[in-house]
Amino acid sequence: MAKSSGSGHWTVLITCEHAGNKVPAALMKRMSRAQQKDLHTHKGWDPGALALAQKAAQTLDAPLLFTQISRLLVDCNRSPHHPRCLGPAFRDEEAAEKNFILAAFYWPHRNAIEKEILKSIQNGSSVLHLAMHSFTPVLDGKKRRAEVGLLYDPARPFEKMWSDALMKEMKSEWPDWRLRRNYPYLGKSDGLTTWLRRHYGPNEYAGVELEWNQALFTDDKPDARMKRGLARCLQNLFLHYS
Description:
The protein has 242 residues and is of the alpha/beta class. It has helices at residues 25-28, 33-38, 49-60, 95-122, 157-173, 192-199, 224-240, and strands at residues 2-5, 8-16, 64-66, 126-135, 138-139, 142-143, 148-151, 179-181, 205-213. Strands 1, 2, 3, 4, 7, 8 and 9 form a 7-stranded mixed beta sheet that branches. Strands 5-6 form a two-stranded antiparallel ribbon. A hairpin with a 2-residue loop joins β1 and β2.
C-alpha cells in the first residue's frame, strides 16, 4: 500500500521476525532436550505476532514478510555478528556451519526485506516499516508493566511522527491499556530496524516495532476484537495522515 501525506509519499511494509518455532529435524538433533522444550515458550518464538502482522497487512493492503524459523536456531532480528544471533546450540559451530545456517535461514528473510525497501525507494516512495513482535509478561522474575510498547529511534523525525500518531490512535482504541514508548526494549538496540537505519536515510526509511504483551492473548492468539481494534488504529492512522 502507498499513501500520500503531508509528509510525502509512503509505502508500508509489515514484517514478523519471530513468527514461528520451526527447526529442521537434522538441526533439531543438535539441540539439548531443554532447548527443544524451549521452542514452545517465548524463548522460541513470539506467540500472537504473526496473526497481528497478517491483520495489519490485510488492513493496509501491504506486503508481509515473515519467517517461522525459531530464534533458537537463528534470530532474524539480530545483526549477523551479534553474539546471540545464532541459537545457543549453534554458537560454537565452525565458521562454515554458521555461514550455512545464515545462508539458509537468515539471509533469505533479510534480503527479501531490503529488496522491498529498495523497490519502494527507487519508485520515489519513503518506507514505513512496521515490525510485529510480542513479549513475555514476566522475564527473569520481573513483571513487564505495559500492554503494548512502540520501539523507534527518537532521533529520526519520521519515526517519532509515525509513533506519536500510532500511539494516539491506540490510546483512543484502548484507553485503559498501558502504552509505552521504547519498552520493554530500546528501539535503538541491536535489531532489524537498527540495521536498516544504517543503510537508509531518515527520509527514506522509518522503522517502528510493535511489541504486544503475550498476556493479552488466549492460547497464544489475539482474539477477533483485538485484531479489529488494530485494524481501526491503522485505518485511522492513514486517514488522518493522508
